[in-house]
Amino acid sequence: MGCAGSSQTKGDRTVKKIRKPKPWKLPQPITKTHLMQMRDEFWDTAPHYGGKKEIWDALQAAAEADLDLAQAIVDGAGIIVQNADLTVCYDERGAKYEIPKYVLTEPTNLIRDS
Q1: What is the value of pTM for the model shown?
Q2: Which of 18, 52, 74, 109 would bridge with 25, disulfide CB 3.0–4.6 Å?
Q3: Which of 85, 103, 87, 89 is nearest to 41 (CA)?
Q4: Bridge-partner residues for 10, per DSSP?
Q5: Residue 25 carries which DSSP code?
Q6: β-pair partners for 89
């Protein structure tokens, strides 16, 4: 039994609760269509950055899910979350996975397509 201030742990590591990234903006405003193209390109090329394809697939599913489902996906895949917003994660073998914020949320200076 833990005290009120204890953290949930999985094995010998603390499990970070996932949250959305803080509001941010790109140097130049972009359209929703361009943002979606950038996201598609990232996920298409992500396995080439290193790590396992299965982990990249789990991270993509988590990035596209609501927070509760994302937490379950990350926990089930054994992903170690360094930054609670999923921008930096590791697999159980120590491979690093970095996800840009534009993949996880929309920038504040997004231009809606007309």
Answers
A1: 0.83
A2: 109
A3: 103
A4: 13
A5: -
A6: 81, 97
> What phi and psi, each to the nearest 5 degrees, are found at residue 32?
-60, -40
Tell me the C-alpha distance between 102 and 60, whole Å: 13
Tokens of 13: 């590591």
The beta-strand segments (E) located in the chain are: 9-10, 13-14, 30-31, 80-81, 88-90, 96-98, 110-111
Q: In order of start, what are the domains of the chain with their CATH numbers? A: 53-104 (1.20.225.20)
The pLDDT, as a whole number, for residue 8 is 45
For residue 14, the model assigns a pLDDT of: 57
Give the C-alpha separation, 99 to 88, whole Å. 6
pLDDT, tens digit (0-9, with 9 covering 90-100), for 27-82: 999 999 999 999 999 999 999 989 999 999 999 999 999 999 999 999 999 999 99
58: closest CA among 18, 106, 9? 18
